[in-house]
Every structure is written in C-alpha cells, then in structure tokens.
Amino acid sequence: MSNLMDRRHLLRLATATAAAGWLPRSAWSQARIANNPFTLGVASGSPAADSVVLWTRLVAPELASTRLTVRWELAEDESFARIVQRGQAEALPELAHSVHVEPAGLAPDRPYFYRFMAGDWVSTVGRTRTLPAPDAIVQRLRLAYASCQRWEHGYFSAYRHMRADAPDFVLFLGDYIYEYAGAAKAVRRTDGVTVATLAQYRDRYAMHKSDADLQAMHAACGWLFTWDDHEVQNDYAADFGGDVQPPGVDFHARRIAAYQAYYEHMPLRASVLTRALQGMASGAEMRIYSEQRFGRLAQLSLLDCRQYRDPQACSKPNKGSSTLDPAICPIWEDPKRTFLGAAQEQWLDGQLARSGATWNVIGQSTLFGQRDFDPGPTRTLWNDGWDGYPAARQRVLDSLQQHKPSNPVLLGGDVHENWVGHVKADYQRPESVALGVEFCGTSITSRTQHPEQVADRLAPNPHFIHADAMQRGYGIADFTPGALKVQLRLLDDVANPASGIATGSSFVVEAGRARVERA
Fold first, then answer.
1. Residues 140 and 106 both lie in one domain
2. CATH no. for residue 175?
C-alpha cells in the first residue's frame, strides 16, 4: 500500500474478511479457477480455548486482481460428517488472496478438522485444536519447537519426522524465511533476488510453503509463532536496518512490506494486522507477542525480540551485528537499553507475577544465557542477542526472582545450535542460584559457522551442560505435572530429502527443581 488512505482501506478489509460468515450467493465470486488454487496448503494457529485461526492462500495467477470467495468448513471428524461451522470469506488481491478465518464458540481442548473450497477445488484437510480452559486439569502437553529454515541450506525433511512425533502444537521461534538472494554451496536454489518489496516477500513465502513436508506439518496441527530478523532483514533492530540496504530501498517501507507479508502467510488474527496498519504511519507496533494457557499445566509467554529493541551495541563497521568486548564498549551496560521494549517488559512481568501454572514457558527467538566465546579472563560476546543487552536480561531475571513463578523454562532458536542449561541469577557467578532452565534449539536447515568448535565453548559457560551444532533438527518438549522431558531430534543429512533422524540427547527437569539433567 502506497499511502495512508490505502492502509486504512486495507485495515477495513482485513477486519471484514476475518469476521466473514455466510455471504449471500450474489457475493460469491463467479470467476472460473482453472487450476488448483490451494498449492500453498492450509494452516491453523493463534489458538484459544474457544477459537482458532484457519489459514490458506489462493494462487490463481489468471485472477491476480480479482476478489475471490472461499467457502470453509469446520468439523468434528475428518470425513466432515459432523460439521460444526461453515461460512465464506473473501480472498482479496490486496492481501495476496490470503484467507484468515476466526471461528468462535468452539469447545475447549478438542480437535477439529477444516477445509477450504473455491470453485470446484477443495483444499487439503487440516487438523487443529483449541486450548484447554484456563483452569482445566491437563495431564500432558507435547510441543515441538523449531526455527531457522533457510531454503538454500537443505530440505525441510525434519517436518516429516516431526509429524510422526505427533506434537499437540508447533512453536516456531523465528526465521521462517530468509531474505538473501542465494547461498554458496546451495542445496536448493532461490530466485536469486534479495527480497525487499511486498511482491518479493510474497514470492519468498510462497517458495517456502511449496515444500511438501512443511505443508503437511502445517496441516497436522496448530502452530504458534514469533519472528526473528530474516523475516525482514538480517540484524534489523526496530526502525534500524541491519545490513546495508539494497540500492534505492527505504528500510521503513521494506519493514512495512515484510510485516504485511508475514501476516498474509501466517494463521494470525486480524487484530495483529489492523493494529499494525493503524500504527505503521506513526511508527507504532504490529503486536505479535502473546500468551497461550494450557490449563493449569503450562503458560506460554511468546515474545517479540526484534520490533522494540535498541540498536546493537558497538558493532564493527558495516555490520548489523558482531562480537564485542564489554570492557571497551561503554554503552553495553547502559541500564536504559532495551531488548523487548518497555511495554512488552511490563507485560512479561505481569505474566510471571500472576501465572499460577505448573510450568512457565517463555518462548523467544534466541539464546538467553550468556555465551562467552573467550576461554580466558576477558569476555567476547555476540551483540545481537541477550548478551548485547545485559540490563534488559537482568530485568527479566529480576522478575523471575521477585515473582518466583513455578518452573520457568526458556525456549529459543536463532543460533543454529543446541544449547541446554540453567538460567542463572548472575551469569558471572557460577555458584549463583538457578532460576529456571533453558533449551535453545538447532535449525531446521540453516548452517552455523565452525560447528565443530561449539562443544568447546562449554568451559567458559558452566551454566550450560550441553552444546552441539553438527546437525539440523528440532526439539520435542513433553510437559506433565511432574516433569519436563526434552528430546533433541537430529537429522542424518539435511541435504538428503529422504534423511533419517535420531534422538541425539534427552533431558529431564523435575517439577519443583530448577535443574536440567541428562535422561
């Protein structure tokens, strides 16, 4: 959208389409769709105890500027003999013919099946689930957590194995796409474009969603999302671009385009986009941080670690991020520097203060604990993660100490490495009390630098008990009232679409003890 008037118009359209129910037959699109328009699959997400978001995006190049009407059905069974809701929604060219349906009034903690229809075409059937009632007694929850799926670096075969692991929900922690034009030693090729415009972001999402294993995993269960940097640009921080912009590209316009494309391709509620469209003209937010409550068993606080942060401290020239030496970076310890923004920090503090759940999970996009690259007496830290924002991290630690929520668990991604350890009150004092545990996951495909050196970094970081970067994969976290059990699932070969998988390591955390041990 090129101006404020267009954005206001789009705001109204997004709200109307999400709320669409039965439309009169006269409103149905009469355009003939020659080929299957559901080639990007279906997805669901943003669950609540009484509602969920159902998503698809129609691909019909011959009707690129035409509004299309999509019918949808939600049923208790996969054969659709017991349909509980049905309706129509408009697929608008202004939103890339994406469809976001928000059926409400559903029963808590139960599976549903859904499908879309356009013309004579019927989509794949998806399976979704509502959350339990907030006060429900829940005995188990299985979350798969994943991040960082660069197309060129391998196949998304991890999702085929994840589907067999049958999680209740997938927690995706950022870098769903990458904006780069390509990669050296590419396993798969992109279109060779550095993504910067709305059309280019749409094309990049469509490329990712063409992957059959990713599509099948989206159809298998609901997903919960946050983003990191590559959904926009490497190392961006709030209104500041990270890497150098392509010639003629304005970063603010680029971010607006990226945020709109993110909404268009994720099962997010319309309120996420409408809030953003209202605010994009004045620098306000597209709020994606959120809470999900799994009865009394677990509360998930899902954070946004990109949109509100200060720029990275002491980056090297022409770098969005780099290593830093705290001893020669005066602003590193500035107490005013923020990673989450004041409003989100306050929101998280409130979440931790009033939770009452057995497990308090904080999902965020990167490694939380200190990772010192220097085995000597000095410190070498990476400035793009929490290590670059020590005052902001300390405020989270202070909230944990003050409110003492039950069994804190931090889940992260970004670094393309598995790290497992303890959340410490003071990372400079190894003997300080553990406030919780942390599992930062490897990537679905994205490579890491010098993976053979990662295990050697445990020595200067004794709060971690495990580090590994040799393989790609995901994590499976099983929560029960008595324990959390985590499996690190590792692919044999990310360059092989038929790759096998194995559990590389397993860990257990007993409820009531902030201690992670090998299982």
1. no
2. 3.60.21.70
Q: pLDDT for 422-431, tens place per residue? A: 999 999 999 9
Q: 434: which 2 tokens?
A: 């553990």
Which of 99, 116, 131 lies at the terminal end of a domain, its last residue?
Answer: 131
Measured distance between the N- and C-terminal CA atoms of the chain, rounded to whole angstroms? 53
Domain count of the chain? 2
Report field, pTM of the whole predicted structure over 0.90: yes
Residues 161 and 305 in one domain: yes
Percentage of the residues of the chain whose pLDDT score is greater than 70:
92
Pairwise CA distance, residues 235 & 320, whole Å: 5
Reported as half-sphere exposure (CB side, CA atoms, 13 A), residue 238 has a value of: 12
User: Over the stretch 253-295, which tens digit does the pLDDT of each residue have?
Assistant: 999 999 999 999 999 999 887 665 555 555 557 999 999 999 9
- The verdict on 298 and 411 lying in the same domain is yes
178 in the same domain as 31: no
Q: Can you say whether the dihedral through the CA atoms of 218, 498, 141, 205 is positive or negative?
A: negative
Q: Judge whether 192 and 329 are in contact, CB under 8 Å.
A: no
Q: Which domain holds residue 401?
A: 132-518
Positive or negative, the Cα torsion across 359, 360, 366, 367?
negative
Q: Assess whether 142 and 106 both reside in one domain.
A: no
> DSSP string of 140-156?
-EEEEEE----GGG---
Q: Are residues 199 and 255 in the same domain?
A: yes
- Both 456 and 321 in a single domain? yes
Low-confidence winner among 109-113, 278-282, 320-324, 414-418 (lowest mean pLDDT) = 278-282
Q: Per this entry, what is the length of the chain?
A: 519
The separation between CA 324 and the C-alpha centre of its own chain, rounded to angstroms, equals 27
The reported pLDDT for the residue numbered 7 is 56
Q: Which of 53, 173, 73, 174 is nearest to 118 (CA)?
A: 73
Give the burial class of 483: count Cβ atoms within 10 A of its Cβ; 0-12 exposed, 13-18 middle, 19 or more buried.
Answer: middle
Rg (CA), the chain: 22
More confident position, 284 or 159:
159
> Order of strands across the sheet with 298-302?
290-294, 298-302, 359-363, 408-412, 434-440, 418-424, 464-468
Task: Summarize the confidence of residues 402-409 as an average pLDDT.
Answer: 98
DSSP class of 290: E
Residues 33 and 122 in one domain: yes
Distance CA 335, CA 342 (A): 12
Amino acid at 16: A
Q: What is the helix (H) or strand (E) element at residue 420, kind and residue range?
A: strand 418-424
Contact in structure between 339 and 392 (CB atoms under 8 Å) = yes
Of the three residues 109, 131, 153, the one that is the final residue of a domain is: 131
